[in-house]
Structure formats: C-alpha cells, structure tokens
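=== RUN LOG ===
request id: a7f3
mode: sequence -> structure
chains: 1
length: 379
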Amino acid sequence: MFEIVEKPIHIDFLHGHHLHCMICQIPSRMAMRDAACRLVDPEAGWQQLRSILELVREGQGNLKKCHFLTFPEAVMPFARIEEALEIIRAGFRPNSVVMFGIEHMRLSEYRDLLCRYREDNGEALASVEKDLDSGDIEQLPTNVAVTVIKEADGRTRIFLLAKSHPFVGEEHLDAQHDLYRGKVFPLFRCQPACFNFMPVICIDYVYRDVYQSNISVIIEKANQLFFQTRQRLDLLAVLQFNPKPEHRAFRDVVNGFYGEYLAYTPGVRDTITVFCNTSDESSGILGNGTFSFGHSSVVIHKSHKIAPTADTEFEVDDFGGLPVCRLRFGTATRLYYFNLPLFHELDPRTTRVPLKIHGIFRSENGQWRRIEKTGETQT
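=== RESULT ===
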C-alpha cells in the first residue's frame, strides 16, 4: 500500500554548509461541509499564507538563504493553489523547496490536478486512475500535500501526494464519505547535492497495521539508500493538523525511528525530522477530549548532544528520555527559522551547537515581525 517512488531533482546546495528551514506554525480553521474538511474562512487563510510567501520571496536579511519552507496540513484553500504556485515560480530563488497541505478536495479534482502536472506525477496519476476505474469514488474527499521545487536552473517542478490514513474526522461508516487512501509517496533525491528528503502528512507518520507500517517502509528505503549508495534520508517533513502533537503514538514512532532497538538503521540515524503543526488558534476537530495545537518541533539523534534549554518561545529536551535531541516550540502563531544540522557526528570535544535558531516571527497587524529577544535560560 505504501509505495515510495524516487524523484531525482536538480538541486545544488552549497557543499559543507548547513541549510535553512522555516516552519510556518499558522492556524487552520476547519469545518465539515459536504462530508469533507473545508476551511471556514479561506480568504483570510490565503492572505496569511500569501504574506509568508511574500516575506520569503523578498528575502530580507538572511531569509534569502531559506531552502525549505514548510506549511502545515490543510491550510491552503483549494481555489488558491495556482496563485500560490505562480508566486513561487515568479519570485522564489533557485534551490528552494516549499511544502504545503491543501483543504480536502474531491478525488476527481485530485486527478485533474495530477493530470495538469503529469510530467512529475505519473506514478500517482496511474494509481488514482486505477482506483477510479474500480468503482464510483469520484466524490471521495482527498487530503493532498504539494511539494514545489525551484531547481538550480530556475525550473519549477510540482509534486503531489495524497494522505494514506485518516484521522477520526476523515473516516466514516459510509464508504462514499471516507477519505481516499493515497498509495504513492515521493522521495526526493537532490543532485549534485546528494541530499534526500521526503514529506508525509500527519498520521501517515504513525499509521501501522498487522502487515505494514508506513514508517518501517521509510526506514527500509533509507537503509537501502545507505547500503547501496552510502547516502541516507536527510530530512523527513511531517505536515500536521494535529490537536495532540505530544500523543504517545508519535512519541513511540520517534523512539523506534532513532532507537535502533531491533535493527541497525544507518539510513535514518542522522535524519532530521521536522514536525510542522498548526497553531493554537486552529479549530475544527470533532469529538471530545482536550486538544492542544502547536508544538511544532525538530528532532535529531542524541549524538548531536544539544544541551537542555528553556526559553519563552522554545525548549530543548529529549522527549521524555528518548535517544533524541528535540527542539520543541510553543503553541502560538509563529514562523520559526533555523538551520538544518550538518550530517556527520561532531567531535565529542566540541562545544559547538549544531542546531541554531536564526529568527522567530510573529504577526502584527498583518505583517510578520522578528522577535528580537526571547529570554533564554539554561536548565
């Protein structure tokens, strides 16, 4: 069910220098309409999204170095996809990647989108057409994420993936209202940079059944990369609309992913996992319980030896005793700009911190302002 397809892309990152990533922890306000999760106010959501795209496009200060721009699951209005893509095509710098989730669309609309960009999505299109041919499922809601890549020569490439497993609000007893299950997931292999990354959507990170676990398929693929090419999975981006980001299910997968308890996993040992969640202004989850959006985070292996730190905007911990270093952000609407550590073990005698926060931005009167001082304290 979970098929990983390699996608070679022409990205020429500066060798031996760290990359930069921005997590956009912004709100997503959803409601069930026509058996699908739709944005309550798509125009307001689009204006906020557009302001972030323009911020990175302008590239003031060191924002011109932004290589990866990540948005949460289900924040892009379906009607604004082409407008967002045009901003990226026309204004973003070469060697940049943008990932964002879209509100639910019908499966027929997803097929049309795949057809529009069939050059880079042949495997996903074939899978969807095969499923459509098997039954009357054109109206099924589909949760889609887009990866937009501006290659080194300025060419823009657009890749699509559909979520493979629903959360409670996306799953129904009525099969005609159930979420479509995506089956094809791209693994991007940058050349000549030798950098490999992959996006997944929220619960696709934790979904497992008796026969197959999505995350185990990712680990096996990364190990295959290592043993055949001595490359690895460098970045795993998890796009979320997650009211329980600290849930035990996510913690258990982080533990197994980095723990190497049952198998030697060199393909993911140095992977950076970026969890991009919506902020605490989000709404739209059905059911009972205590919800707490936010807490986007960056997780790396414990060998990077980042000391525990507490701050008004973030903290560094080991996720309750796991073999990791976790940079855990707060719940407010923020843009977090940081570097991705280099992928080699540091000399144990060094005092250098491999993960640096370059800027945190908050929204003031529709404009993004850098927070100048956060009040860091060591613990």
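=== NOTES ===
The first strand starts at residue 3 and ends at 11.
The chain has one domain: 3-378.
=== END ===
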